Structure prediction request, 216 residues.
Amino acid sequence: RVWKKDELKKMIDLAKKYNVWVLSDEIHADIIMPKNRFLSAGIFFCHHEKIIVITAPSKTFNIAGLQIANMITPEADTREKIIAKQKALHLTSPNLMAVTALKAAYQKGLPWLKAQNEHIKRNYDILKSFIDGLSKNVWLAPLEGTYLAWLDVSAYEMDSVIFTKRLASEEEVIFADGKKYGDNRFIRINLACSNEQLSEGLKRLNRFLKKNRDKS
Prediction:
């Protein structure tokens, strides 16, 4: 999901009403599908001071190994506490390669980012076409943002843990099970791969589903 402004506002209003903090992890903020618009929780800094926005270039530009990120809050006391904790953990100085990569990504990476998002959308369309062609009622969640697709496989009468373990064992395809994310009906498919790799994975998934179609 890419949250709409009114949805964000309702959440921030609840946080303000009950005087609780909002930590907004916006690491996937750049990976947005067509007809959707990302809005940071930071647009409500003036409405509720207890907001911390966390961002990084690592997901967007695949540089997680460089270990650089940002924490943003308008609340001065909280900012001082964060800085003090970072100093205590020796986390105040990212390495020079990470700083250089971050600058290059944010200053010159827009054409690459647009091409990446178009590629992810094409992969989603390939997956959707595959799902539409299945004989069983398998639901694919609409993709508004990120490179992660969610597929409800409960029609095959296997929970996601069993489904993914058997798929890995029988067809050497690895998807994440939904149990660790709170819903055991779903599997999570990473679309950040080549069209060819996705097509091969779906071919193997199709073999697996055919073998289990008559058993369920």
